[in-house]
Automatic annotation (TrEMBL):
Residue ranges of every copy of the Carrier domain listed in the record: 2-80
Listed name of the protein: Acyl carrier protein
Annotated InterPro entries: ACP-like_sf, PP-bd_ACP
Protein species of origin: Kitasatospora kifunensis
Database matches in Pfam families: PP-binding
Length: 87
């Protein structure tokens, strides 16, 4: 589950400086708990596009796709995303 770990590391670096990777549960609701706001969501989408070589359509920027680490990982699975340089 390297992808989930990478997502957690990014989220912690950007939004949760006092939390460890082990403490951030995959199902923790990032939106309801105020970790990510609309600007943070755009920052996250930009990071995902660059990291996984994706072109995320505006219609895909739905809150449910980015609500938790598990939701983000599932979104990347559906998009068949691979890290930059892996193809």
């Amino acid at each position: 589950m390297a992808r989930a770990e990478d997502i957690k590391k990014y989220l912690i670096q950007q939004f949760l400086l006092d939390v460890s990777v082990e403490e951030l549960a995959d199902d923790f609701d990032l939106l309801a708990n105020g970790v990510i706001d609309s600007l943070g969501l755009l920052t996250l989408v930009s990071w995902l596009e660059g990291t996984y070589r994706l072109d995320i359509d505006a219609l895909d920027v739905a809150p449910d796709n980015f609500r938790s680490v598990a939701a983000i990982s599932a979104f990347l699975d559906r998009a068949d995303a691979v890290p930059d340089g892996a193809r």
